[in-house]
Amino acid sequence: MYQQYFGFKESPFNITPNSKFFFASLRHTEALNTMVYAVSERKGFVVITGDIGAGKTTVCRALVNQLDSRTQVALITNTLMNGRDLISTILEDLEAQYTPGSKAKLLFQLNNYLIEQLRENNNVVLIIDEAQNLTPSVLEEVRLLSNLETESEKLIQIIFLGQPELKKKLAMNRLEQLRQRVAVYYHLSPLTKDEAREYILHRLKIASKSDRQYFTEEALETVYNFSNGVPRLINQICDSALLSAYVAEAAQVTDQTMREVIAESPMIQITSGQPVLPKKESALAEDLTTKIYFKG
Ligand SMILES: Nc1ncnc2c1ncn2[C@@H]1O[C@H](COP(=O)(O)OP(=O)(O)OP(=O)(O)O)[C@@H](O)[C@H]1O
Ligand SMILES: [Mg+2]
Prior knowledge:
By secondary structure, the chain is of the alpha/beta class. The chain is built from 14 helices and 5 strands. It is elongated, with a radius of gyration of 22 Å. The two termini are 28 Å apart.
């Protein structure tokens, strides 16, 4: 709505992951490199955890874009399924020829497909996003897939991406065998204060192709204090702030606008007046808290 007013070619803070806006923060780069390394070295199992909205799906998309044509990818995002459906979804995603049947029959066909790919010198990667939703028994099924190997090589590289619950699930006693097979683990933390600022400016620049200062420095700091550096929260609040500035016919988002938008955000309202702010007692935090409680 505000795009034309501010001269944006497209929306700068869309909340769907879009590779065009990828911001290579230190942590996103490390997560990406971890996966690239594990796939190219055929390490077997990789687990990436990260807070809600930290950018797991975004780095997963960046990975898929980076893989070469010798790597076949199955990307699973619907994790609310049983073991048999999971295997048939993997076969479909890999565009493998198969005939439907029992789980054992599907596994047999997947194994044949993997051997064929190895013979052709191809690598196969299974990426499971939202892996925190997999039940322990389906997690076990995936472990059985990692048993598909030759004497010297893993036939399939498996990457789990999930919220911190995934780590808790993997710590369960009954999943020890799976846990022992995890070759690489990485936790994607939110952006630091400096990175959050850079992240916002990066998205604005891509959308506007200009260096115009859309937010005051104080407003940028307030976004960080609200979001704790979580990209999705940054996007949501910056989008609302630009809309608010447009409605007020302002040229820039000021700190005052930003605080008002935060106080009225659904995040704050749903958590019934509990401010989503870091624990540290900054004057800014107190200020904002007062405002939110008054509003609520
Ligand atoms: N490195 C990044 N560069 C650009 N945008 C990013 C980056 N990281 C996250 N985002 C943006 O933040 C939002 C949330 O990212 P994403 O969906 O990848 O998070 P997630 O960790 O997968 O969340 P969930 O836990 O809900 O699955 C998206 O709009 C995405 O575009
Ligand atoms: Mg995600």
